[in-house]
Amino acid sequence: MAREWAMDHHQTLQSHLASQGADADCAAVIEALAEAARELARQIAIAPLSGIDEGAATVNADGDVQKALDIVADNLMRDALRRAPVAGILSEEVNLPETVNAAAPLSVAIDPLDGSSNLQNNISVGTIFSIRPRGRDVLSSFFEPGTAQRAAGFFVYGPQTCLVLAIDHRVDLYVLHPTLHEFILAKSGLRIPQDTPEFAINASNRRHWSGTVRNYVDECLSGAAGPRGRDFNMRWIASLVAEAYRILMRGGVFLYPADSRPGYREGRLRLVYEAHPMALIMEWAGGSASSGRARILELSARSPHQRAPLIMGDVRLVRDVDQLHEGVEPLFETSDAPLFARRGLFR
Ligand SMILES: O=P(O)(O)OC[C@H]1O[C@](O)(COP(=O)(O)O)[C@@H](O)[C@@H]1O
Ligand SMILES: [Mg+2]
Ligand SMILES: [Mg+2]
Fold first, then answer.
1. Cys-Cys crosslink for 331: which of 135, 161, 210, 276, Cβ 3.0 to 4.6 Å?
2. CATH 3.30.540.10 in the chain, residues?
3. Rounded distance between C-alpha atoms, residue 264 and residue 249, angstroms
């Protein structure tokens, strides 16, 4: 007999949200996303991942090459959100936020397919989302700090399709049951395991990093004999959702810092639909997320696709990186950049 998750009496996403008294509008948005994710998981499973049949390459608002599945994912997610109580949608794949129903209470920022630059390798990819109250107008919801988020989460399309959901100050894990076709609660109240000596960074960028980041990684690499006094393990999956999932399961720290390459002076990851939702998930699972100089949840974007450095995971490991930044002038980010102010371009 194969082993299965001890799925909590087959409690579905819908029944669990209702039993926990989740806000009805938030629940409707999450359920709409889950429906789209079920279909996206199915399409990923049958699509060519190699890029062979993809036709002409297009680029998104940020200049990233779009894969055919990026477009499929974007259409599925935005179609689903248009049927939910949503005022506006900001998608990685679209230049400007879309207005859906200006009177609706919530707005959603979304990375429809995260990790897609490595899709051809059949690694885990995912969908990241951030649910926020509608601001004075549709645009302004996306320029609030991350503390304004009502809920956030990500789906992983991997060996198992799952949903990690941060809502009402807890983080729950649901797994898509392959025959019931429902997201079933697998664990409520995830907590990041502490003191796991493990870091994740794309070390091929070492020559572009600041001295601070280089110092931190060198200290980890020097192991038990070095200043951190422990042997560290290293991981790099190149898929943010898979890295975040690993941290929730095993602990450790993830870094995508700013570096000196053109276009990377504020890091690679996008603040509103990558760093903000991951930061909420980390904090509500007992961890933290920082840019090295500020708490990610306190940063506001100056433009929809604003980037930010992201260091996330175990509170103590994130604090070690923050401490190395103390008193060191920013090398790449300028301190007058609106990323460091409370509001940005549209105000
Ligand atoms: O290829 P790099 O520079 O290591 O970057 C990997 C990072 O880029 C991303 O793929 C960016 O996300 P998208 O695939 O949504 O653009 C993250 O998932 C991942 O952490
Ligand atoms: Mg992404
Ligand atoms: Mg993406």
1. 210
2. 8-187
3. 29
Computed over every residue of the chain, the mean pLDDT equals: 91
Average pLDDT of span 269-273? 98
334's torsion region: left (phi>0), alpha (psi -120 to 50) or beta?
A: beta
Nearest CA to ligand 1 atom 2: 238
Helix residue ranges, H only, the chain: 13-19, 24-46, 68-82, 211-221, 240-250, 276-284, 315-325
pLDDT band at 9 (very low <50, low <70, confident <90, very high): low
Residue type for 74, please? D
Are 169 and 284 in contact by the 8 Å Cβ rule? The answer is yes
Ligand 1, atom nearest to 113 Cα: 15
- Give the architecture (CATH level 2) of 198-340: 3-Layer(aba) Sandwich (3.40)
Q: What is the ipTM of this complex?
A: 0.95
- Is residue 67 in contact with ligand 1, taking CB distance under 6 Å? no
CATH 3.40.190.80 residue ranges of the chain are 198-340
Tokens describing residue 185: 């609660």
Q: Which residues pair with 130 in a beta bridge?
A: 109, 152
Q: Is the CB of 75 under 6 A from ligand 1?
A: no
pLDDT band per the 50, 70, 90 thresholds, residue 118: confident
Contact 247, 198 (CB under 8 A): no
Global pTM reads: 0.93
The domain over range 8-187 is classified in CATH as 3.40.50.2300? no
- Ligand 1 atom at minimum distance from 241 CA: 18
Kindly state the percentage of the chain with pLDDT values over 90: 82
